[in-house]
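Continuing the batch. This is chain 6 of the set; chains 1 through 5 are on the previous pages. Same settings as before, nothing changed between runs. Recording input and output for traceability.
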Amino acid sequence: MKKLLILGATGGTGRNVFAKAAAKGYEVTALTRHPDNLPLGIVGARVLTGNVLDGEAVMRAMEGQDAVVSSLGVGNSLKSGGLIEKSVPIVLRAMERAGTKRLVFTSAYGVGETYRDVPMIPRLMIAVLLRDLYADKKAGEDILTQSPLDWTLVYPSTLSNKPAAGRYRVGERLSMSGLPTIARADVADFLVTQIEDRRFVRRGVLISS
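Output for chain 6:
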């Protein structure tokens, strides 16, 4: 797989995915409303201006792609606007029409069954502050997991902007306590490895430091 479409490429994690994938030799395409926010100096990258909620824009970006990595999100907002629930069907339809099979989709620990592994303090934050964001992610994932595509759902613990540690834990279940975190750069590294790694196809996987 050489041609890669990145959604959410201007977010904190997406920028790392964009740079990491290009460095590993992928022919990277980013679909974004804010192309000026992408990292500079990425040789050979293709940037398309468009909205992930615009089906025609997503279809144009999807043509010829081998895989998709999504790190879609609403930044620091506590209101989802239904972004994930609205965008997932659009992305899936475009993938099916284009014949693109592989989808690596970033979520957050605490969504769906991963809630069982979340420590107490983050659980309270999810219940009080992040309820709308998590409900939106869960609604989108309920649609995604019905797809016949080769998807993988990645559930990072709380994201930080620290430099990559170069090591992290992954698994369908993880033992966590306190306030577990993971550097965005390490999440990006794992997301890129999953493009061709088959271990977690049609499964969810937690990642934390």
